[in-house]
Amino acid sequence: MNILVTGGAGYIGSHTTVALIESGYNVIIADNLSNSSISTKKNLETITNQELTFYNIDVADNNALENVFSNHHIEGVIHFAGYKSVSESVEKPLYYYNNNLISTLTLLNVCEKFSVNKFVFSSSATVYGDNKPPLTEKMLLSPTKNPYGETKVMCERMLSDIAKSKEHFSVAILRYFNPVGAHESGLIGEAPNGIPNNLMPFVSQVAKGKHKKLNIFGDDYQTLDGTGVRDYIHVVDLAIGHVAALDNLTNGVHYYNLGTGRGTSVLELVKAFERANDVEVPYDLMDRRPGDIAECYADVSKAEKELGWTAKRDIIEMCRDAWRFEKKHHI
Ligand code: NAD
Ligand code: UFG
């Protein structure tokens, strides 16, 4: 089956490309490299031992996208392409609404024109806003307080409306928790531009000596040790979750949390990283970061029951693989 993977050169898209190929799917990637590098194509070819079909196009470019659908008999789409920084979206809302909404609308129009009815969408735990964990798919979405989160809510609603209006449209909306780690080869992973916002890449860069210390944002939350708790999921488990969603796609709209169901505090993650890799991660305890919540973790029973999928890799493996990639790839 031919699957179009938009954003396939990015962090989650590249790992999902590997998982799809390993499961027998044929992948066509469309990515404008706005947050990735063409070297990922080569690395994917090394990992999968095959040539990849890659289009350097903007998914919001209708003609370029129609050309891809004319060249290949696309049977399903996994849509990763989009911008993903919460803080950047607050500074540049229009930039986020333009890219994340127009790319999705253009893609959906082209899917309709070419009668492609299988769609998997990258959403985020951020849509749950202030709901209290464990977070379940049935919860009402609350305002997300940032334009990035709003784009995810809006795309979810568009997809749900389309599924209601078209009998044969199948869509899986996957709400990711905190993806970390990298492929075991160390060839692909998360390579953020500039100073990382997210915890794991920052921890890796401190271990490497790129920054003196990690700033831990808040030690006075109502959590086991006062630091923020998140549901970290190995990116390879997340990638396999996409294959499970595609394999089990049926008509209508389906929402799934992809996480481990376990919360890990910032301090626990730092200690796990030190233990897994025999390195030191010095840190300072700082004030809370604006906009952060105390705890976020998934109820993963729906994905387990309906997709037969669970995350297998533990926090030590996540830390080990993140460090292997960091050592290989960053200055
Ligand atoms: P990423 O930035 O590494 O990958 C996104 C890819 O899409 C990049 O390669 C980029 O070049 C490409 N892209 C962006 N806009 C495009 C466009 N208009 N046309 C073509 N290509 C375009 O991000 P990621 O971490 O792999 O995230 C993938 C998806 O998952 C995003 O939609 C993101 O919002 C969502 N998500 C990510 C996280 C996370 O923590 N990483 C959490 C929840 C949801
Ligand atoms: N943290 C630090 N120091 C840092 C970075 C983070 O202490 O330098 C803490 C945060 O305060 C938080 C935890 O580490 O308690 C995790 O923070 P991240 O920035 O790694 O992740 P978030 O949970 O804030 O957000 C991430 C993505 C969002 C996505 C969300 C849920 O960045 O896009 O997970 O999927 F919506």
Automatic annotation (TrEMBL):
Enzyme class, spelled out: isomerase
Biological-process GO terms, alphabetical: galactose metabolic process
Top-level taxonomic group: Bacteria
Pfam families the UniProt entry points to: GDP_Man_Dehyd
A cellular component term, taken from the record's GO annotations: cytosol
Family statement drawn from the similarity comment of this UniProt entry: Belongs to the NAD(P)-dependent epimerase/dehydratase family.
Recorded metabolic or biological pathway in which this protein acts: Carbohydrate metabolism; galactose metabolism
Cofactor section: NAD(+)
An example molecular function term from Gene Ontology annotations: UDP-glucose 4-epimerase activity
Encoding gene, per UniProt annotation: galE
Location of the NAD(P)-binding domain: 4-321
Catalysed conversion reaction: UDP-alpha-D-glucose = UDP-alpha-D-galactose
Keywords: Carbohydrate metabolism, Isomerase, NAD
Quaternary data: Homodimer.
Keyword NAD attached: yes
EC number in record: 5.1.3.2
Name of the protein: UDP-glucose 4-epimerase
